[in-house]
Amino acid sequence: MDLTDRKPRDWEEPSLFDLQAFEGSKPERDKSCLTTNLWTHQKALLIARYLHSFLSVTKNGIYIDAFSGPQDIVTEDTSWAARQVLEQKSNFLGRACLFELDEDKIPILEQLRKKYCQGFTRLWKRQVMVVKGDCNVTIPAYLKGHRIKPKQATFALLDQRTHECTWALVKNLATHKKGGHKIEIFYFVAQHWMNRSVKSSTTAVKLAEIEAWWGGKGWKEFIELSSWDRAEKMQERFQNELGYKYTKAFPMKSNGNDGNIMFWLIHASDHPRAIPLMATAYRSIGLKISDEQWNQTKLEDLLTQFGNESPVR
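C-alpha cells predicted for Three-Cys-motif partner protein TcmP (313 residues):
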C-alpha cells in the first residue's frame, strides 16, 4: 500500500504536507545502492522532512547543526542532514549555522552555502554561516553573540557519533532562549556501539570525555541499561533536567524497520505539534511506529494541548 493512501492514526498530523512532493518518497531498501549506511541516510532524510513540515507551521526558523559535514568526504552524497535541509530551499528558513570540527569538510560546507544562496533575491533574509571548531565551544560562543528572538523557531541537530557532544552544550541550548519556546533539540544517542566504545576508553582523557558527555558521574549506570531503558532515561533527562514539555525517542535501525537499533533520536520540544509532526515524518520515510513505542507517551493529553495552543513559536 502506498504510504500516502494509509489513513493516519489519531496522534499523527494528517495532511500538513504532501509526501509525494518529496523526490524519492519511498525509502531505498537496497543498501548496495547507497554510499553510506542506510540509517545515516534515513537520519538525514528524517530531519529534513520534519523541518520542512514544521517550518510550514512556524513560518520562520533557525537551523543549528553541530556536526554538519558529510560523513564521507570522498563520495559526498546526499546522506547528510545539512545538505538535505538546505537543498529544500524553504522560504521560511532564515538562518542556518553549520558547525564542523574537521577542517577537510569546511570547503564542502562552503560550497553548500554558496549553492544555497543562489536564486534568492533577498539575501539579507538568508544567512548561512560555516563555523570551524569544536561545537562544544563554538556553539555557545555563537549563541552569545547572535540574538535569537523569543518567537523565532530554532532547531539544533546534535548528531554525534558516540559521546562527542557534552551535556554542558545541551544545557546551554536548552536554557538559551529566555522567552517563547525553548530551542528544539534533535539529540542522537549511539546505541549499537556504545558499550564497545566505552569499554575501549581506558585512558583518563577518554574517561573524562565520557563524563563530560553525560554531565557527571552517573554514566556507568546508564551504560548498564537495556536499549529501550536508555531511550526512556534520556527522555526523562530532557524533561526533568532541562524542562522540555515533550520528548520522544525514535529508533533508527540498521536496515530500516529491521536489524539492530543503531541510534536513538531523542526529540525534545516545547511545542505540542512537534512530536506528532516527527511521527508523521518518520512514517513518511517508510519507518513503522509500533503501538508499544507509544505506551509511555500520553498522546491524548498532547493532542488536547495542541488544540489549545497557537502554532507560533
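The chain is about 40% helix and 15% strand.
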